[in-house]
Specification:
Length: about 750
């Protein structure tokens, strides 16, 4: 037996040394060879190959320039003469694709366009040598004693010419970006002179509105500041092109210039613009009418514009984009519970995509991959990433942009989501399951089984539930699918198991970051009291009290957000500390003994059926609204508010309060004036409080405004609350002239 074993070892070693080894026991016979005049990228690629081979094997391969000395065995990187003579399929390379070639003696990592040589190096280190980069701080190097060079001839072309994941790791780590073959802001700024929503910069309202109001959108017969441009105006075209020329002169090397609509729905409705809309069949036709004229002035540039919101639908007659016009097509309205192409809810988007594809092959697809209003909420959109990207590629999209979040913000599932998107943007036919398994097993190590189960259960619940998954949604939207009370319990158990299996602190920290999104959802759902377990409160001897463990969970969540660099919970800047203040405010008002609960109420104004949360009784049911106007808020459109609460008997009263919601981005304003009255008989009223409010000119900052009168020392049976609404959006607002909302959640009488 011993002789037989020795013979096997000898045969193995003979077989080993009969082949070419890239390295063996810290030594190597190979040199890294770059062209005689290497580019910066080729030199960097060689240095990276050298650096990481040392980490993998301990062998330091010298870097040589081609021709400076004889090379018996080489790792040829970039556009070397040896590669040009050896590789026969160079003409098949597309964009920043590359070829990996090996004849078991010499290794060639070939690519010439931009960073292709570097991509080839990283791909070889990953695929052939097992190295993985999960996050910028999580490089997994598999140390090896030897490596036998394989027979290799592999061409790799990208599915998209341009690939960016906005505001995730690529914006902070060049190493991560290059390893995963992504582009970033620097790449963008080199090629793009301006980038999206540029009407506001090309024709600044501060500079031109007073002297040329006719250049701006006409809405309800008036020109407005917070809108679009009047694209039928020839003088506007002249001035915009002059301003654009000045900008181009400052960045002469930039090829792409965005001339695109602002981020609102206020396209011009003057008679001329409406005539063009009708002529071309859609407002996008009017936009193209204007953009094509700009493009004609700058034939050596590519003018990009937006198919976004009101311009998403393509024109269906008489016009198409000029050859040097790029269409940036946006999926902001789409749900993420199914792949868009086969989602019955999204067939209008599919139709629009087909329409643009039939008009042009110059399409830049802007997609969205996080939940912007609640960025730390679990957002199980992983199942749609591959089918969507595959469909985009099949539809002729050449440039792909996945928007993660705002600058320096972090979101739930960020590590896995970024990793998966990067792999799929390079090759849309890759298996998402294999990529996810690879990541979870490598990143969470021994804690892989429960973490994998966590992701799988989230994903499956979305499939089974078939409920819309919205990028502007809330945790409560998932209460019947991926955030049911039963699943929350299972997730709790899985995280306990994961911590038990984790063997290092850094792995525990990774688990904790993932668990933060779970904790956020639990707390948010508990404010809606979706079950006895998922509630902030319990009853002791009939008295409603907050659960101490929930206070601990809230405080721990905020503390760990700070520790892990989570600065905002929604895209417009809602900090964890602000969130905690709102949660504690909710707890405070929910804990009071409200004399109005269970009594009678009459509304003198009609609430909207679209925001009916139980009718008038919703204002005295003891259930308060959170920072989500879809949840427990009663909405009134374009009218004042008046309600009378009947306490059924004359009662001592010390305090009255009512809350209103503020969020102008959704056309929700706080009333201009709120007044309280009391009465003993319902006929003679005493005015006891009146307060005015000046709504700030801020679009996207939501808050809850409280109106309260304390120290009343009154006796009354009836309480009347009047609120004077704005009724229509003010002039500064992008929805100027349209009816606006007031939302209220609860009348509190103590």
């Amino acid at each position: 037996m011993k002789r037989y074993g020795l013979l096997l070892v000898l045969l193995f070693n003979f077989s080993l040394f009969s082949q070419s080894l890239l390295f063996n026991r810290g030594e190597s016979e190979h040199s890294i060879v770059v062209p005689s005049h290497p580019s910066d990228i080729e030199q960097h690629a060689a240095q990276e190959m050298q650096r990481l081979l040392i980490a993998i094997s301990g062998a330091e391969l010298p870097i040589l320039r081609e021709g400076e000395q004889t090379v018996e065995k080489g790792v040829y990187i970039g556009n070397t003469e040896y590669a040009a003579q050896t590789i026969k399929n160079q003409d098949q390379i597309r964009d920043d694709g590359f070829i990996k070639y090996c004849d078991r003696e010499n290794l060639i990592l070939y690519g010439t366009y931009k960073k292709a040589a570097l991509y080839a190096v990283y791909d070889f280190l990953e695929e052939q040598l097992g190295t993985r980069l999960y996050t910028p701080d999580a490089l997994d190097v598999v140390q090896q004693g030897f490596y036998v060079l394989p027979q290799l001839n592999q061409l790799k072309n990208p599915s998209f010419k341009y690939r960016e994941v906005l505001y995730y790791y690529p914006n902070h780590s060049d190493f991560y970006l290059d390893w995963h073959r992504l582009h970033n802001r620097e790449d963008l700024y080199k090629e793009w002179g301006m980038f999206v929503h540029t009407f506001q910069y090309l024709i600044p309202v501060e500079q031109y509105f007073e002297t040329h109001p006719e250049w701006f959108s006409e809405i309800h017969g008036r020109r407005i500041k917070d809108g679009q441009l009047c694209l039928s105006n020839p003088e506007l075209l002249e001035q915009l092109c002059k301003n654009l020329q000045v900008m181009m002169d400052e960045k002469p090397d930039a090829l792409y210039w965005s001339v695109s609509n602002n981020d609102n729905m206020n396209n011009c409705t003057c008679s001329q613009c409406r005539r063009l809309d009708s002529l071309y069949g859609a407002p996008s036709g009017t936009l193209l009418y204007f953009i094509n004229q700009v493009a004609a002035r700058f034939p050596d540039k590519i003018i990009s514009t937006l198919a976004y919101q009101y311009t998403r639908k393509p024109p269906y007659r008489l016009i198409q984009p000029s050859d040097n016009v790029n269409i940036m097509f946006c999926s902001i309205e789409c749900g993420r519970e199914r792949g868009i192409e086969l989602n019955p809810r999204e067939q209008s988007f599919v139709s629009d995509m087909t329409g643009w594809k039939n008009l042009t092959d110059n399409i830049f697809l802007w997609d969205y991959v996080v939940q912007f209003r609640n960025m730390m909420n679990p957002f199980p959109n992983l199942l749609v990433l591959q089918p969507n990207l595959e469909w985009f590629s099949r539809s002729g999209v050449k440039m792909m942009f996945e928007q993660g979040t705002g600058p320096n913000n972090k979101t739930s599932w960020m590590e896995l989501r970024t990793y998966l998107i990067a792999k799929l943007m390079w090759d849309v036919h890759s298996s998402p399951e294999e990529i996810m398994n690879e990541f979870i097993e490598g990143y969470y190590e021994r804690a892989y089984p429960p973490i994998y189960s966590y992701f799988k259960k989230n994903k499956q619940a979305v499939i089974d539930g078939d409920q819309r998954l919205d990028i502007y949604g809330y945790p409560i939207d998932g209460v019947n699918t991926y955030l049911t009370p039963e699943l929350i319990k299972e997730y709790d158990s899985l995280f306990v198991q994961a911590y038990q299996l984790a063997h290092r602190q850094d792995v525990k920290d990774r688990i904790r970051y993932l668990e933060l999104s779970h904790d956020f959802a639990k707390i948010e759902l508990s404010m809606s009291e979706v079950s006895e377990e998922l509630s902030l409160f319990h009853f002791e001897n009939g008295v409603k009290k907050v659960k101490p463990e929930m206070i601990d969970l809230i405080n721990r969540f905020v503390a760990d957000c700070e520790k892990m660099g989570i600065k905002n919970l929604e895209e417009n800047g809602y900090t964890p500390e602000q969130w905690r203040e709102n949660v504690f405010h909710f707890i405070e008002k929910s804990s009071v003994n409200n004399l109005a609960v269970g009594k009678k109420i009459k509304l003198k104004t009609k609430f909207s059926d679209a925001y009916n949360r139980g009718g008038a009784e919703a204002l005295i049911d003891g259930v308060f609204g959170i920072l989500n106007y879809h949840q427990n808020w009663l909405g009134f459109l374009g009218q004042d508010f008046e309600a009378v609460v009947d306490l059924e008997e004359i009662t001592p009263i010390e305090q009255i309060s009512i809350d209103f919601y503020f969020y102008p981005l959704s056309w929700i304003f706080v009333p201009e004036e709120v007044t309280f009255y009391v009465s003993k008989n319902g006929r003679r009223w005493e005015k006891i409080f009146s307060e005015t409010y000046q709504n700030p000119e801020v679009l996207a900052k939501a808050h809850i405004q409280k109106f309260v009168k304390t120290d009343l020392a009154k006796e009354a049976r009836y309480i009347k609350i009047k609120a004077k609404a704005i009724k229509k959006n003010p002039e500064w607002h992008r929805g100027f002239g349209e009816p606006c909302w007031i939302f209220t959640d609860e009348i509190v009488i103590q």
